[in-house]
Design a protein that fits this description.
alpha/beta, seven-stranded mixed β-sheet
């Protein structure tokens, strides 16, 4: 099994091989500034007491307060959270926003909890972490299996404990509780802005065939936006299975089908395939938008996509990266492709601190400008350094963090 934190360190070394940084700075980047582990007691609906393990890793604060999501997942552990916190530090530097990198989590399958239990767990996380977070210290957000409602519970608990009034400690809140316009679609939309820049540079067909792994918020939004732009989504998967429809999937109809059936398998006119088959389908664009370690040395040689857009965190292992690079398949790395989410989260934080509320048009225009500028810069840098886009993105991020450290 790939330890995600070891993958992250391996990526750091690969970037350093192209442009070397000082050993002291590399050592600093390879260790989080702080790791917090907590035990959250929750009184269950049946009266029993259960204890859940929670985490927050604060990786680097050279450029601003720690920033990063909190995930509720049964497989979440400290190594995963450390890797994600490291990637967040780089992602914020890539987007050139005034934030550092952090990440949080709880080892739990939230589907096994009632709403009351979920609220107690969420408030418990905020209560136990209250002294380590805050608008100037560490600003958490939603991630896998956490929602705007969960952010509201956490924010409410934090404000009760500390008396903090701006509501800027947690982002990804609902609009009525200080959330930002455009936050829901931001990760998928930011990925599409990046894709649109490279679509021209890499001579991809005008209308591309697209395969999306993951039909959650990010994958679903990206699929919908790309379809509206005239691209053809031929295959999609969710946590239960995958479907293929070579003449194109109607995303709005698939959304309705999933709401009614709680799965996408059986969607009219589609063929059921496995997740493994989905990743190696012939297509122009492959979008991994699910979990880490999906494209590995085991399947990288069979990938038939012409272009990979990473909307999940850490979906490609370093070994797979080398194989894809040698085969001439560009991979737009997570720290660039999915940085739209944290960018709009930072806009939310800024709006809360200033007591402002920006329109969706303003938010999307600011996001588009950032994603296009940084994509152009990182792509040009990859050409100049004769390296892949991931190493180029790492180098740009590391240079910015090193400058802030000095």
């Amino acid at each position: 099994m790939h330890n995600p934190f070891e993958n992250a360190l391996s990526q750091l070394n690969r970037a350093n091989a192209v442009k070397s940084f000082s050993p002291e700075f590399l050592e600093r980047m390879s260790k989080p500034e702080r790791e917090i582990r907590i035990t959250i007691p929750v009184q269950m609906d049946n009266g029993s007491m259960k204890f859940f393990e929670g985490y927050r890793v604060e990786h680097n604060s050279a450029r601003g307060p720690y920033k990063g999501g909190i995930r509720f997942h049964q497989d979440t552990d400290i190594f995963e959270v450390k890797a994600l916190a490291f990637w967040m530090a780089l992602k914020c530097a890539v987007a050139n926003i005034p934030m550092g990198g952090g990440k949080g989590g709880v080892t739990v399958d939230p589907k096994t909890l009632s709403k009351t239990e979920l609220e107690k767990l969420s408030r418990g996380w905020a209560r136990m972490m209250a002294r380590n977070i805050g608008p100037e210290i560490d600003v958490p957000a939603p991630d896998v299996n956490t929602t705007p409602e969960i952010m509201t519970w956490m924010n409410d608990e934090y404000m009760k404990i500390t008396g903090e009034k701006t509501g800027a400690t947690f982002t990804g809140k609902p609009l009525e509780n200080g959330g930002s316009e455009g936050r829901g679609a931001a990760t998928g939309l930011g990925g599409v802005y990046t894709f649109n820049v490279l679509h021209k540079k890499l001579n991809l067909p005008e209308s591309c065939t697209v395969v999306v792994q993951g039909f959650g918020n990010v994958g679903g939004n990206a699929a919908e936006i790309l379809a509206k732009q005239g691209h053809k989504i031929i295959a999609i998967s969710d946590s239960k299975g995958a479907i293929l429809k070579e003449d194109g999937i109607d995303i709005a109809a698939l959304n309705e089908y999933k709401k009614a059936n709680r799965q996408i398998e059986g969607f009219p006119g589609s063929k059921t395939i496995t997740n493994a088959e989905l990743l190696v389908l012939e297509c122009d664009v492959l979008i991994p938008a699910a979990l880490e370690n999906q494209i590995t040395e085991a399947n990288a040689k069979d990938i038939k996509a012409k272009f990979i857009l990473e909307l999940a965190n850490g979906p490609t292992t370093p070994e797979a990266d080398d194989i894809l690079y040698s085969r001439g398949i560009p991979v737009v790395p997570d720290i660039l492709a999915n940085s739209g989410g944290v960018t709009v989260s930072t806009f939310e934080w800024e709006q809360n601190l200033k007591g402002e509320h920006w329109t969706e048009e303003e938010v999307n225009a600011k996001l588009k400008k950032i994603m296009e500028e940084e994509t152009n810069l990182i792509y040009d840098r990859s050409v100049e350094l004769n390296t892949d886009i991931r190493r180029s993105a790492f180098i740009v991020a590391l240079e910015r963090i090193e400058k802030a450290t000095k």
